[in-house]
Inverse folding.
């Protein structure tokens, strides 16, 4: 059944006004949960957690180093790569920044977070002979195996899990 035009003319503005009023009320209340019931990131600042039970860092709390001469930055999220034991580190590379062939004493596990990581193997530095690993991709650096890698035009951010002490031994042949 259709609503007569005079009633529709009156109801439509009332419904719109009520809708805007509900939105205004809802936006004034801090939301603590998403649709799935999980605490949202903004709510993390409102809740006090026992850091002895669950530790976390929000993006603005990540301790980035100052850029190196080549422009790379790192941040240790857990552990210390220079000491024995597990560590988790973030590494940012500026655009077109490459390592030359090298190897690590222990396996390292890498997740590409942003950009594209270009990976190559062997002792000869050859950026044209690489494979692109895009954001979301995974790389395992196998212990004592020579490799090189770099960033493309957009730069790169990766997360590295490994066992310390982390070393990098040059392995380039010219």
């Amino acid at each position: 059944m259709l609503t007569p035009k005079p009633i529709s003319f009156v109801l439509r503005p009332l419904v719109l006004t009520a809708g805007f009023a509900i939105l205004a009320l809802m936006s004034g209340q801090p939301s603590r949960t998403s649709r799935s019931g999980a605490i949202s990131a903004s709510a993390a600042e409102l809740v006090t957690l026992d850091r002895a039970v669950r530790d976390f860092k929000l993006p603005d709390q990540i301790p980035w180093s100052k850029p190196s001469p080549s422009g790379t930055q790192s941040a240790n999220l857990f552990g210390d790569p220079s000491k024995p034991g597990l560590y988790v580190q973030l590494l940012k590379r500026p655009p077109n920044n490459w390592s030359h062939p090298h190897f690590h004493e222990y396996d390292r596990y890498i997740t590409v977070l942003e950009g594209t990581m270009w990976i190559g193997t062997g002792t000869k530095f050859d950026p044209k002979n690489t494979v692109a690993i895009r954001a979301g991709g995974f790389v395992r650096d196998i212990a004592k195996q020579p490799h090189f890698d770099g960033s493309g035009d957009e730069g790169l951010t990766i997360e590295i899990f490994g066992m310390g002490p982390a070393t990098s031994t040059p392995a380039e042949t010219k």
